[in-house]
Amino acid sequence: MSQMIQRTEPCPICQMPVKTDGAQYMEKRGERLYFFCAPGCRDKFLAGGCCAKPKGRWGRFLDRLARANDKEFGASGPSCH
Ligand SMILES: [Zn+2]
Predict the structure, then answer these.
(1) Does the model's pTM come out above 0.70?
(2) Rounded mean pLDDT, 17-26
(3) What distance in angstroms lies between residue 11's CA and the mean position of ligand 1's atoms?
(4) I want to staple 41 with a disulfide (CB 3.0 to 4.6 A). Which of 36, 48, 65, 72 is the partner?
(5) Distance 42 CA to ligand 1 centre (A)
(6) 37 near 14, Cβ under 8 Å?
(7) Distance from residue 41's CA to the centre of ligand 1 (Å)
């Protein structure tokens, strides 16, 4: 196993690659860990934005509700991705 490979994750705000090893700024959302290039990006993430909702039981319920709406109204609403 090589130790030379640096794992990086894209900053969810600006898409800059962030080294996950010794990352200074990170946030956990449900099962996912997000890495940020700078505290400003983390602040933006924490401030909200459609990708930043915590996915607890309530979040999953809202997801299901949103999917049901998609079925009923078509997926024409504002899209996150
Ligand atoms: Zn960033």
Answers:
(1) no
(2) 93
(3) 5
(4) 36
(5) 8
(6) yes
(7) 5
Token reading at 47 = 């401030």
Find the 28 Cα to ligand 1 centroid distance in Å: 16
pLDDT, greater one: 9 or 53: 9
Domain span holding position 22: 8-72
Q: Determine, yes or no, domain membership for 17.
A: yes
Measure 61 CA to ligand 1 centroid, in angstroms: 29
DSSP-assigned beta bridge partners for residue 28: 33
- Say how many C-beta atoms besides its own lie within 10 A of residue 52's C-beta: 16
Centre of ligand 1 from the C-alpha of residue 26, in Å: 11
Asked if the structure places residue 48 within a domain, the reply is yes
Domain contains 78: no
In a domain? residue 31: yes
Based on the structure, what is the number of domains in the chain?
Answer: 1
Helix locations, the chain, DSSP H:
39-46, 57-73
